[in-house]
Amino acid sequence: MPERDWFEAYALPDRETPRVRANFVTSIDGAGTLGGRSGALGNETDQRIMHVLRSLADVIVVGAGTIRAEGYGGAALDETDVAWRRDHGLPDQPPFAIVSSRLDVDPRHPFFAEAVTRPLVVTHGASPVARREALAEVADVLVCGDDEVDASAVVAAFADRGQPQILTEGGPSLVGDFAAAGHLDEFCVTLSPSVVGGDATRIVRGAPEADRRMRLVHAIPDGDYVFLRYAR
């Protein structure tokens, strides 16, 4: 598929309306990881789409568990994507934000130490003050909620910062929080042609059971993979 078509396929209807878009890969039997990592299920096109979605985002919001499992140290867009963002009046690199209730993440972690633009930490008012202060040395800290991170407050906080287009890459509990709060606006799913078995988790976890129906925007095949985009 020509490069320009991926940006067209995932184009946003507007940049002003606050929007949460999730991006995941899953096996055909519903596993979100293989060997503990989601990247093991994807292919080169899946990676390219991930970078397109990051290019379109104002901020990339990720749970602390996903940071520990997947790394994210030094994650950055390449020159082609940077040029696209410049052409559309966006900063060169979208910042990454880590969501954590306990703040049990080392300020020396590569997520902070190797960040190409100042990252963010999203937590709640009851999180440990000393850890919050330590992380404030290496990141902007947003307090969203009193005793737990409030997904609605997260969306509002980023909108207030001029970053209404949120991309989340997990983990499953974080996406579940957005879904439960009614803020999961788009779901982009790579369907991997793998049968994994085992005890791998689903790609959404923790949200109360409900029929949160979405409409299919596209289904694009790529060899044995299928790239799905759903929207509310």
TrEMBL record:
UniProt KW NADP keyword: yes
Pfam families for this protein: RibD_C
GO biological process, one term: riboflavin biosynthetic process
InterPro entries listed in its UniProt record: DHFR-like_dom_sf, RibDG_C, Riboflavin_Biosynth_HTPR
Pathway(s) annotated for this protein in UniProt: Cofactor biosynthesis; riboflavin biosynthesis
Domain of life: Bacteria
Keywords assigned: NADP, Oxidoreductase
Domain Bacterial bifunctional deaminase-reductase C-terminal span(s) in chain numbering: 18-223
An example molecular function term from Gene Ontology annotations: 5-amino-6-(5-phosphoribosylamino)uracil reductase activity
NCBIfam families: PRK14059.1-1
Name of the protein this chain belongs to: Pyrimidine reductase family protein
Species the sequence originates in: Agromyces atrinae
